[in-house]
Every structure is written in C-alpha cells, then in structure tokens.
Amino acid sequence: MSAGPDSTHVSSLGKGDGLHQQVIASFPLCDVTEADLTQNPQFCKLLATLSQHVDPTGLTFPLKKELEKTEQKLQSQRRHWLHSESLHKGLQEMIQDHCIQKQHATFYETMEKCLLVAQCVRQLDPSSAANQDQPSVLGLNPQQILELMPSEKNVQRMKHGLLRELEKHLKKKCLSLLAYYQPEWESESEGLKNSKLSHLSAQLDIGKRRAESLKDTCRENSVLLQRQTQLYLSELIKCIQLLQSLILDHKLRIQTDLDRKKLDYFEGKCDLVLQKIKTEMVGIQLDTYTVDSISAHRKIREKLESALKACQVEKHSVELKLASFDILGKEFEALAKEYCRLRQEIDVNNWALKSSPSAKDK
C-alpha cells in the first residue's frame, strides 16, 4: 500500500539513467556511482524518496530552517561582539599611540583610567563568575574600584571628545588599510580617498568572497589532485607490472637464442682449437720425420714385414706339426714332455761343461 507515494516521487524524478543522475546530484556528498544504483534499485528508490525531504547536505528542511535561524542569531551576536571588541581595541591603540608619542594629555590619561577601572570591575563582577562563592581578588569589590575613577569633569570632557578622536583614529586606520589594499591611491587627494573609503567595505567583502572561493577551489583541486595522484599511482603500478611481465617474456624468448648463439660460438671455438692441435701435430711430425728418417723407417718397415711373414710361415708350419702330434694322442704328449725335459737337461749339462775350468783349458 505504501508503494504508491514512493512510486509517485520516483516517477516525478525520472526513470533509468535520468533517475540515477538526479539521485547522484541530490546527494553530492554521498560516494555513490551509477553502477551501485543500477545493482541496487531499491536503494535507488529509497534515495529518490529521501531526496524529497532532505537537502544536498543531508539535513531535513525543518532542521535546516532552524539551523539558518540559529546561524543568523549567532551572526548577530558575533557582529555585536565584534563591534564592542573593535571599539575596545581602537581605544587601546589610541592609548598605546599616546604612550609612544609621550604626550601628557589629560584626555588619554582619563580614557586609560576609565578602561582600567571598567576592566577591573568586570573581573570583580560576581555575576560573571561561574562560582558565586569564589572570593574576590584581594578582598576588593566593584564599588571600591569605582572610587578610583577620574573626576566627573574629566570624564565628561573625555566623553565629549571621544567620538571625534575615535573617528580620527579609525579614519587613519582605514586610510592605512586603503594604502595597503590599493597603493596607487596613496598619492591621491583627500576627497578621492574619502570617496574610496566609502567603497572599501564592499571591495573587502568582494575580496574576501573571492579569497574564500579560491580557497574552496584550491581545496577541491587538492582533493582532485589526491584522487588523480592515487589513480596515477595505481595505473603506474599496473604499467610497471605489465612491463615486468613483458621483460620476463622477452628475456625467456631471447635466452634461447642467446644460448644457441653461445653454443655455436663454443662449437666454432672447439673446431678452431682442434684444427690448431692438428696443425701443431703435423708441424711436430714434419720437424721429427725428415726425408732420410722416413726412408730409413721405410726400410726398417720392409725388413720387419719380411720377418713377420717368415714368422707367420714358421708359425703355420709349427701349427701343422702340432696338429699332427695331436693325432697321436695323450701317450705321445707324455713322451713329448719327457723329451722336452731330457732336452733341457742336456742343454744344462752342455752349458755346465762349457762353463767348467777344464773345458776352458782345452
């Protein structure tokens, strides 16, 4: 049943993207995006309905009116306080100027005493103290302080000339402010300066509003700069990560080509070293084997080959004899061994006979 008024409010704002834009515009301080409103349509409707009852800052309209009234009252009290405070400061400045110039004028002395007495009376006033039972300073009361006021005649004379002197002092301050605010007017006539003073307040208000506007713009630019800096840093981190991945892929791809080139280089270097070794070996052979040594080695080789052939023939004949002996069996093997033993004994006896002294004499 309650959906009817809500739907009326929503339809009055708009539909779709238009509704989203109006909701976002109605709550500029709320960090909500169109994607959030699209994903949460009920929340979007709630904000659309709520925008009919609150201002962009989030205050309800009755509360905003009360706040405006309170601010107006506060501004009024502030203006009243600033008025009194500026007058008090102006009087103090006049007294300070009088003390610096060392002028013994009854007017300034009377005004100084009146200000001191008024300040002391305000300090001793029990109505301004938070604790009513608090003892007074040095046991004094306001009536005792009022007795220190200058004579009534001097006070009346001071009051009579106070406005004129205060006006001179304030005008002097305004002229100094005008000279600071617009130095080009310092050399102008008194009439032009007075005319310019009448517009000084409006110009100061314009300058103040401009300064506040620039301050707000600076604050917004600072926030925007921070957001852009964060966005820039995040994008920079993504770029660095992408660059690192590209470097890694490129390095892995190049590493294969580099390894192949290194392998080809080492293979070529090994071939060069082998060729150099062969060249050194050939050089050593050329230095070692001259023409004469080669012919001598060739003759030696021929003799050794002929001797080898003779040995092979003899070996062949011996193998034939051994084959014929194998046919005779094991009995002949025993006789052959006995023959070999007797042959060895005969050789030993012959060697002994040849080695004996009698044989040498013969």
TrEMBL record:
GO terms of biological process kind: centrosome cycle; spindle assembly
Record-linked Pfam families: HAUS4
InterPro entries with a match to the protein in the record: HAUS4, HAUS4_met
A GO CC term attached to the entry: HAUS complex
Any one GO molecular function term: microtubule minus-end binding
Protein name per Swiss-Prot or TrEMBL: HAUS augmin-like complex, subunit 4
Organism in which the protein naturally occurs: Cyclopterus lumpus
Lineage: Eukaryota, Metazoa, Chordata, Craniata, Vertebrata
